[in-house]
Amino acid sequence: MHFFTAARALLAATLFQAATAHNIVLPAHGRECFHETLHKDDTMTVTFQVGDREFGSAGNLDIDFWINNPAGQYEANEKSVSNGDYSFTAKHDGKYVYCFGNENWGANTKEVSFNVHGIVYVSESDLPADPLDREVRKLSDLLAQVKDEQQYIIMRERTHRNTAESTNSRVKWWNMFVIGVVIGESLFQVWWLRRFFEVKRVV
């Protein structure tokens, strides 16, 4: 009987996790804000990665990120970041606003991929009566997390690929410039030597 009571108490304290993934285009000198309604003691996590949509581009990927609670206070306030992972526990019921700002970081448009993970307390009365339903819900949550992580990895891969392509392009053009300088210098030296010997013959 004690085991059954303990099991029920443990079941009542079960945490269900929901996760959503989003991709947004952050315009130059713009911002995008979103909100989540939380209850006290709920936990919320926001992870994000900034990328560039242009293939071969590796511009400035820094943005500002902040989270405001219902009292207008900062839960997070980060400047000049290109990725992040921020978690907090709600101290009040209400609307929590999180924003991505591109207002101070150049004129290029940036793509932001972000995931919002929320851990919500579920009381015993709200839990599915069928254990199979509970397992299906947990499995669904896990699959959603895997999908979100895949999208996050794709964004990071795109950012790293763009950086590598930009570096390779710059190296290529620099090498072509160096080759052009060497060829130009060689032609100048040949011209100068021919002119020098022509002057010698005239004298």
TrEMBL record:
<feature type="domain" description="GOLD">
    <location>
        <begin position="31"/>
        <end position="118"/>
    </location>
</feature>
<comment type="similarity">
    <text>Belongs to the EMP24/GP25L family.</text>
</comment>
<keyword id="KW-0472">Membrane</keyword>
<feature type="transmembrane region" description="Helical">
    <location>
        <begin position="173"/>
        <end position="193"/>
    </location>
</feature>
<dbReference type="InterPro" id="IPR009038">
    <property type="entry name" value="GOLD_dom"/>
</dbReference>
<keyword id="KW-0732">Signal</keyword>
<dbReference type="InterPro" id="IPR036598">
    <property type="entry name" value="GOLD_dom_sf"/>
</dbReference>
<dbReference type="Pfam" id="PF01105">
    <property type="entry name" value="EMP24_GP25L"/>
</dbReference>
<keyword id="KW-0812">Transmembrane</keyword>
<keyword id="KW-1133">Transmembrane helix</keyword>
<protein>
    <submittedName>
        <fullName>P24 complex component</fullName>
    </submittedName>
</protein>
<feature type="signal peptide">
    <location>
        <begin position="1"/>
        <end position="21"/>
    </location>
</feature>
<dbReference type="GO" id="GO:0012505">
    <property type="term" value="C:endomembrane system"/>
</dbReference>
<dbReference type="InterPro" id="IPR015720">
    <property type="entry name" value="Emp24-like"/>
</dbReference>
<dbReference type="GO" id="GO:0016020">
    <property type="term" value="C:membrane"/>
</dbReference>
